[in-house]
Structure formats: C-alpha cells, structure tokens
Specification:
About 40% of the residues lie in helices and about 20% in strands. The chain has about 675 residues and is α+β, with helices and mostly antiparallel strands. The protein folds into four domains: about 15-215, Immunoglobulin-like (Sandwich), CATH 2.60.40; about 220-465, Orthogonal Bundle (Neutral Protease, domain 2), CATH 1.10.390; about 490-565; about 575-665. A hairpin with a 2-residue loop joins strand 17 (about 220-225) and strand 18. The radius of gyration is 45 Å and the shape is elongated.
C-alpha cells in the first residue's frame, strides 16, 4: 500500500516571525518623523515539554528583544510592545519578566496566533528587554496538534530573528521529524529524550512537524460489506484512546468500498479480512505500514475522507496492479474522486500539478521513486508528483472516456497482453501470467483501446524521461510496421514471436522479424491463390505455423512443403486425364486415379502432408499402369473366348457324327 496521500494532511507551514515585522514597526514610538523601517534583534530560546496528564505540550520561550534603530536627529526611537507569531490554537498564553506578569494581547488567525506582549517601559535605542512567554498546545485544539498516550503530533516553531529550539519527550516514544532539522542531543536520567535544533538563523523559514508513537492497545470494530466478487470482512483498528476515529472510519469505509469498486470496474479479489489501522501521518515505529499492504492499510488519524478513499483504492490498484508509483497514485486519486463525488465527499483540487515545484528539478513521472519509496530527499517532489500523476490520469480519462479507461484496467488486471488482438472485452485469448504493469505496458494498453498517437505524445511529454525519446521514435516505426503486418495477415493474426518482441519493447528485433514475416506472407498469398485455382483448401497447420513462428525457419519449411505438394498435385492433375476403354478395363474393380487424387486433396486439407503426397504417387502409379493392365486383361479375355469357341466347334463336330448313327438305329 502506498504512503498516505498528501491531500490527507493539513499543511503545517506557518508565516514566520519575519512576517511580524510590520507589527513590530507599528509598536514603535517614534518622537520624530521616521526615516526608514527600524531594525531590531529578537533572540529566542524555545523549550517544548510534554504534559501528558494535561493532554498538552507546554512551551516556554525565553525572549531577548533589542532595539537597534538609531534615534533620529530630532527625536528618539522606542518600542512599547513585542509581537510573536505562535501556532494556531494556543491557550494559557502568559508573559513574565523579572518584575512580574506582562500584559498579552492575542489576535487569532486561521494559521497562527499573534501574541503581542506589552513591555513594562518603552524600550530605547540600544536597550534590551527580556521576558518569558509560556503557552500550551492542547490535544485537538488545532488539527495539527495531537497529544495522547498513544501518539503525538506537534508543530515545532522557532521565533524571532534568531532562535534555538529544544523538545523534551519520554524515551518510550519512537520519533520522526519532518522538516527541521531536530536531532537527538541527550537522554536524561529521567528517561527523557531531548531534541535540539541548534542555532536557527532564520526562524521565519524554519519549522518542523514532530510525530511520535509508542506501543499501545487497539480496539477493533468490524462489519461485512457485500461486493462483486465476494464479501469483505472489514475490520477497523483504532487507538484505545481514539475510539471515535474507529467508528467514523468504519462507516466511511463501508460506504466507500462499493463506490470504489464501481469506479474501478474490477471484482474484489482480496483474501482474508481487510484491516484498516489508525496511524500517524508518517506511519513510523510500531505503527509502520505492514509490508503486505493489499489487505492491511494504515491510515493517518488526521486523514481527510478523500485520503481514506485514496488509500482504499489501492485495494484494486496496488503494487500487484502496477509496479510504478505514479500509475498507482494517479489511478487511486482518480478513482477516489469518482467515488467521492458519488458519496458527496469534498474532492481537493489537484491544480498544484503545474508548474514544477520551486527548488526541485523537473522529473518524469516514470522516474518518481521507482522502488515505491517516498522521496525523502525532496518532499516537494512527492507533493508535486501526487498531484501531477492525478492530473495526468484525469487527462487520460478525458481523452479516452471513462469506459475505455475502465477497459484498460480490466485488461491489466486480467493479464491480457497489450498486443493480443484476439482479446475481447478484456478477456485474454490465451492464458497469461499477471504481472504488475509499468509505464511501457500501460502506454501499450492505452493505445490498444483507442489512445492512438495522442497517447504516446502525452506519455512522451509527462511520463518518460527525455532519454527515452529515441526509443519512442523507434516504437512509432515498429507500431506502424506492425499495423501493416496485421492488415496483411488478416484473420490469421500476429505471430507470437513478433507480438512478444513488441510487448517487450524490443523494437529492433520486431522490425527485423516483421520484414521476414512480410516476405513470408507474400509467398503465402501466392500459395493460397494457386490452391484456390486448383480447388484445394489449405490446412490449418499453415496458419498455426504462422502464429507460432511468423516468418522464421519452421513456418518457412512448412510453406515450402505445402508449395511442393501443390505443385505435385497440379502436375498429377494435368497428367491424369479421363481413361480410355483399355484403361477402364485395366482399372476395373480397382481405384480410379482421379478418385485417389481427390483423396490426396482431402488429406492435404486435413494437414496430413505425408499421406497426401503418398496418395499423389499412388494416383500417378495407377494412371501409369492402367493401359498395360487393360491390354493384359483384354488379351486374357480373348484367349478365354478362343478356347471357348474351339470347344464349341469340337462339340458340334461330335454331335454331327452322332446324329446319322442315331438315325440308323
């Protein structure tokens, strides 16, 4: 299963202390006309500590504010207050200096809280004031804040013009920091881990998201969901201290699964229960996403409903479906959007796909984390690539139509080879081994269902790196030659060796084989024309040799053998004419040569070339011996007649002698 979709995480970036410069200037008391914006120095040291019993993070910020704005010629400069930009949702905000409490005014905004601390006295040029600001980040006060026994998520900020940050947490938690950096500096004797930022030169550009987890109990809620292809045994596991998440996620997933299956157009083929486990956004430590993925899905506790749908879509378009990340993520977002609209769930905007992220080199989608691992070195690429993949699949669907895109998914899921022209309705004509699809085979499938040249152009522009241009040019040549070959082959279809070369993107090999096959087809057509003129039906074995061998040696030998038979058959037919009376006498009570020759034609049509050739030889032999046999039979007949005649004459003579004697008696 893929990583949680970025749209499922609310942004934890902030407007830094530099954004408060205007407010700082407004807090200045200037006794003469100001000549320019006043500089200042605001140094801070922030300490974040876990108060688990209170369900909060306590933050203490030690502040040293120095007025570095020189007095103008006719007056003086001073500051009466200091504003600090804090996280949204803060509470219990207080400030103290050495004398006592200071007044704090809060201005709450969607992404931050501006805390303005009133100084005890106006601060003149080159003077400094120090105080400590404290506040709490309470669990649930802001979507970015989670403080529970099971898990933590805390946005960590620095403040002012320079800062340091330290975070104190129990060692029982496994930690991950996004942004920052924050590194482990010490482990105290109290079993506490201390993370430190070191010197932060520009706090306005520094922030971190701390996520932590420790082994905890889960509670499980379950339900059965009927889908095409089987019933899903759905189980949702939530932290014991977050039962509400489990209940709401169970309801959402129960409604989403049928909608996602309809969007994908694929049967449910999962084996065993489908388990949804609550996790942190990073999925670290004991909450790490299981390796199996397909039937065990980790979903961040702060994931939006759309992100949950995106994760569920990987049940159909997971690692077993596609080997490349952009295909999985783009399709998952596309299918999730279809299901979300049906369920009236808000769909985020993926317009961020263009342009490329700043400070990130442009990438081709096929090169996006090909091993399926997050691009930890450049999170901006991940954020862009999620949206870009989604936008690309949406564009494919708009070009092809949803029905044809569904056919692409069905062909891939059923293992139908892209160049299988005999496949119908996504069903392979022959048994095929299912393999995860990559960008090459995905393009082949898209073009097979009607994507045409625009599909290759789109893949060239967004999916493949520029190093693939020569290969794509060669592919275009090979596909054109392949189309010509299919037209010439007719209903005989493509030969397996050529089809496999095309599917394997071995286009040099395919072009050579196609040229040989075209020559073979020309010879085949001449053979078929001659056979039709001779009244013969060609055997199926010729087409079978074509499909298995194309124009190579085996099919060439078969063609030569059949051409030789045809020549012998035509020659025999020309030699054997109608029998004369003597030949008819010789063939009396035996096989007639033309009947034997007709039998040879039947044997040929049935594919028994050896028996057919033997029948031709027998027909010729019968025809050659018919005249001699007739002469022999005629002579024998005449001899018999002569003997019979002589016997008759002798009998008559005896009879004549006997008649007078009888008369005298």
């Amino acid at each position: 299963m893929s990583e949680p979709h970025p749209t499922g995480r609310s942004s934890w970036r902030r407007i830094g202390a530099g954004a408060c410069a205007a407010a700082v200037v407004a807090a200045m008391n200037v006794g003469a006309p100001a000549r320019a914006a006043a500089p200042y120095v605001l140094r801070t040291d922030a300490v974040y500590s876990l108060a688990l019993a209170a369900g909060a993070i306590r933050v203490a910020v030690s502040v040293t504010f120095t007025n570095t704005t020189a007095d103008p010629a006719a007056g003086f400069s001073s500051f009466r207050s200091v504003p600090l930009s804090l996280q949204a949702g803060v509470s219990s905000v207080e400030a103290r200096d050495r004398t006592g409490p200071l007044r704090v005014r809060l201005a709450r905004q969607a992404s931050r809280t501006v805390a303005t601390v009133a100084l005890r006295t106006a601060l003149r040029y080159r003077r400094s004031a120090g105080f400590t600001l404290t506040y709490r980040l309470v669990d649930g006060a802001d979507p970015h804040v989670r403080v529970r026994a099971s898990s933590l998520m805390v946005p960590i900020w620095g403040f002012g013009t320079s800062s340091t940050v330290s975070v104190h947490l129990p060692a029982a938690y496994e930690l991950r920091v996004m942004g920052g950096p924050l590194t482990t500096t010490t482990t105290t004797q109290r079993g506490e881990v201390v993370l430190s930022s070191g010197a932060i030169r520009d706090p306005s550009r520094w922030s971190a998201l701390l996520v932590a987890a420790r082994s905890t109990e889960y509670v499980t809620v379950s339900r059965t969901v009927a889908l095409s292809g089987g019933t899903v045994d759905l189980r949702v596991r939530s932290f014991a201290d977050d039962r509400a998440w489990g209940a709401s996620t169970l309801d959402l997933v129960g409604e989403a699964l049928p909608a996602l299956q309809q969007a994908a157009g694929l049967p449910y083929v999962g084996v065993g229960p489908l388990v949804i486990t609550e996790s942190l956004p990073s999925g670290i430590g004991p909450l790490a996403e299981p390796a199996s993925g397909a039937q065990e899905i980790s979903v961040a506790f702060d994931a939006t409903p759309f992100t949950v749908l995106h994760q569920l879509a990987h049940v159909w378009v997971g690692t077993g479906f596609a080997s490349e990340r952009w295909i999985r993520e783009g399709l998952a977002s596309h299918l999730a959007a279809i299901a979300a609209r049906k369920l009236r769930i808000p769909v985020p905007n993926h317009a961020a796909a263009d342009p490329q992220p700043r400070q990130a080199a442009p990438i081709a989608l096929a090169t996006w984390s090909p091993a399926g691992e997050p691009s930890a070195a450049n999170p901006a690429i991940d954020a862009w690539a999620y949206a870009a993949s989604w936008a690309f699949v949406d564009a494919l669907a708009a070009s092809l139509g949803e029905a044809r895109l569904t056919l692409v998914l069905q062909r891939v899921a059923r293992g139908v080879p892209a160049y299988d022209t005999a496949a119908a309705d996504g069903i392979a004509s022959t048994s095929a081994q299912l393999q995860p699809v990559d960008s090459r085979r995905f393009l082949d499938q898209v073009q097979e269902v009607g994507g045409g040249q625009p599909a290759q152009d789109a893949f060239r522009a967004r999916v493949f790196p520029s190093s693939a241009d020569a290969m794509l040019d060669l592919r275009a040549r090979a596909r054109a030659a392949y189309a010509t070959l299919l037209a010439a082959a007719g209903d005989w279809g493509p030969p397996e060796p050529i089809r496999r070369a095309m599917e394997g993107w071995r286009f040099d090999e395919a072009l050579i084989k196609i040229a040989d096959a075209q020559r073979w087809l020309s010879d085949r057509d001449r053979l078929l024309d001659a056979a039709r003129r001779a009244g013969l039906s060609t055997p199926d074995r010729l087409a079978m040799r074509w499909r298995s061998d194309g124009g190579d040696d085996v099919s060439r030998r078969e063609l030569i053998a059949e051409a030789a038979f045809l020549q012998a058959y035509i020659g025999a037919g020309q030699r054997i004419d109608g029998p004369n009376p003597i030949e008819s006498l010789g063939l009396l009570w035996g096989s007639e040569p033309r009947a034997v020759l007709a039998g040879a034609a039947g044997l040929y049509a049935g594919g028994d070339l050896d028996a057919a050739a033997a029948a031709i030889d027998r027909a010729i032999s019968l025809d050659a011996g018919a005249q001699g046999a007739g002469v022999v039979r005629l002579a024998a007949g005449l001899a018999v007649v002569s003997v019979l005649a002589a016997g008759l004459l002798l009998a008559l003579r005896r009879l004549r002698r006997m008649v007078p004697s009888l008369a005298r008696s």
